[in-house]
Write a structure and sequence with these properties.
about 400 residues, alpha/beta, Spore Coat Polysaccharide Biosynthesis Protein SpsA, Chain A, 2 domains, 8-stranded mixed sheet, 15 helices, about 55% helix
Length: about 400
C-alpha cells in the first residue's frame, strides 16, 4: 500500500510539474525580455468587424462608438443581433452599424452568431474579418493594426484582451483581474518573445477571409475561441499575439454574472484539456509540428487558482506521506513545483500586477482559490456544457 501511494504521488507530482514549468517559462520570458513591435509592410486591407450580440442593449452603443471611428469607406461593421428580445438591433442601427438579425432558439450560442455574420460577409467578401464582443471597447487604431498584421502573416491575429475591475470593485474582483492579466498578457507575451503562437481569446481576433470563411463556426461550444485557435493551428496557421492592439471590457459587479462568466470559461477550458490535449500532443509529434505542440503545452495549464490548489494539495499529501514513510522523492517533486509556481506568481505581480493589487491583497489569493473549489467540483458533477450569456450589470 505504501509503495502504491508513493508511486501515485510521484505520478501526480510529475504530471503537475509540466504545466507549472510551462507557466513559469512564460512568466519569466515575458518579464525579462521585451516583446518587439510587429513590423508590417503591406497596405491596410479592407475588413469587416463582426459583433455577435445577444440582448446587449445596455452596452452595444458604446462598443459601436469605439469601432466606427477606426473604419474607412472600404470597411464594414456588422452587428449580429442573435435571438434578442430587447432593443439591441434598433440601438445598433441608430448608432450607425449594419445590423442583421437571427432567430433560432434551437441553435444558441456565440458560435452560431459568428457563423451567421461570416456567411453574411460572403456576399461581398472582405480581406479580413475581425471579431469583437458586444461588451468591449476597442482602443484607437487597434483594428487597423490587427487587419494589417493579419494580411502580412496570413494567420489569425489576437489582440491584447484585458478585463478591468469596475469602480468600487471588491478584492475578489481585483484578484480576478490580476489572474486575467497573467492569462491574457503575461503568458502569451512570454510565448511571443520566443516567436511562438498564442491561444485565441474570444474577442479582438482578426482572420484572413480565406481561413475564416471555411472555419467550422456554427456550434454552441462554450469556449469556441479555444476550439477555433486549435483548428487554425492544425491547418498550420497558428494565431499570432499582437500586444499593441488593445481591447478591453469590464467584469460584472453582480455576483451572479461574475460567477457565471468564470464558470463558463473555466469549465470550458477544463473540458478542452481533457478532450483535446492528448490528441493534440499525438498529432503534433506525428507531424513534427512545433506550433501545435507548444499550443498543446499552453492548453494544459489550468486556471491559475486551480493550478495553485492542485500544487499545494499534492505538496501537503507528499509531506504527510514523507512523515509516515520516509520516502523523499514525492516531496521533492511537489516542493519544486510549488517553488516554481510561487516564484512565477511573484514575478508576474512585481512586473505587471502592482497597479492592480497590493502585495497584501495578493496574499489573500489562496483564500480566493479556496472559494473557487465548488466551481471545480461542479465540473465533475454539474458541468456547464452549453453556452449561457453572463448576466450583465444594469
Amino acid at each position: 500500500m505504501t509503495l502504491f501511494v508513493g508511486v501515485l504521488l510521484i505520478v501526480l507530482g510529475t504530471v503537475l510539474l509540466l504545466p507549472v514549468v510551462v507557466f513559469f517559462t512564460q512568466v519569466i520570458f515575458s518579464s525579462l525580455l521585451k516583446l518587439k513591435e510587429t513590423v508590417v509592410t503591406v497596405a491596410r486591407p479592407s475588413f469587416a468587424v463582426v459583433v455577435p450580440a445577444h440582448n446587449e442593449q445596455i452596452q452595444i452603443r458604446s462598443t459601436i462608438a469605439s469601432i466606427l471611428p477606426q473604419l474607412t469607406s472600404k470597411d464594414r461593421l456588422i452587428v449580429v443581433a442573435d435571438n434578442c428580445n430587447d432593443d439591441t438591433a434598433k440601438i445598433a442601427r441608430d448608432a450607425g452599424a449594419e445590423v442583421i438579425e437571427r432567430f433560432n432558439l434551437d441553435a444558441r450560442g456565440k458560435g452560431y452568431a459568428l457563423d451567421f455574420g461570416v456567411r453574411h460577409c460572403a456576399e461581398t467578401p472582405p480581406e479580413v474579418v475581425v471579431i469583437v464582443d458586444a461588451d468591449c471597447q476597442v482602443e484607437p487604431n487597434a483594428l487597423g493594426k490587427l487587419a494589417t498584421t493579419c494580411i502580412e502573416f496570413g494567420r489569425p491575429v489576437q489582440a491584447l484582451y484585458l478585463m478591468k475591475s469596475p469602480v468600487g470593485a471588491g478584492l475578489q474582483t481585483k484578484i480576478a483581474e490580476f489572474a486575467w492579466l497573467v492569462k491574457n498578457l503575461v503568458r502569451p507575451s512570454g510565448y511571443a518573445v520566443l516567436g511562438l503562437p498564442c491561444q485565441l481569446m474570444g474577442t479582438g481576433m482578426a482572420f484572413p477571409w480565406e481561413g475564416i470563411s471555411k472555419a467550422n463556426l456554427a456550434s454552441g461550444h462554450i469556449v469556441e475561441d479555444l476550439k477555433l485557435g486549435i483548428e487554425f493551428s492544425q491547418a498550420d496557421k497558428p494565431p499570432l499575439f499582437l500586444k499593441n492592439a488593445l481591447v478591453t471590457s469590464v467584469f460584472p459587479t453582480n455576483t451572479e454574472g461574475l460567477t457565471g462568466q468564470r464558470t463558463r470559461w473555466e469549465h470550458g477550458h477544463l473540458g478542452v484539456i481533457l478532450s483535446e490535449a492528448p490528441s493534440l500532443f499525438a498529432e503534433a509529434i506525428r507531424k513534427l509540428n512545433l506550433s501545435l505542440f507548444v499550443l498543446a503545452l499552453d492548453l494544459i495549464v489550468p486556471p491559475l487558482a486551480l493550478l495553485s490548489l492542485l500544487t499545494v494539495g499534492v505538496f501537503i499529501l507528499s509531506t504527510i506521506f514523507y512523515i509516515f514513510s520516509g520516502l523523499l522523492l514525492p516531496l521533492v517533486l511537489s516542493a519544486f513545483g510549488l517553488l516554481l509556481l510561487g516564484i512565477a506568481v511573484l514575478v508576474a505581480w512585481a512586473r505587471f500586477g502592482q497597479s492592480i493589487i497590493s502585495f497584501a491583497s495578493l496574499c489573500y489569493a489562496p483564500i480566493y482559490a479556496l472559494l473557487k473549489i465548488p466551481v471545480y467540483l461542479n465540473f465533475f458533477v454539474k458541468r456547464q456544457v452549453n453556452w449561457v450569456r453572463a448576466k450583465r450589470d444594469e
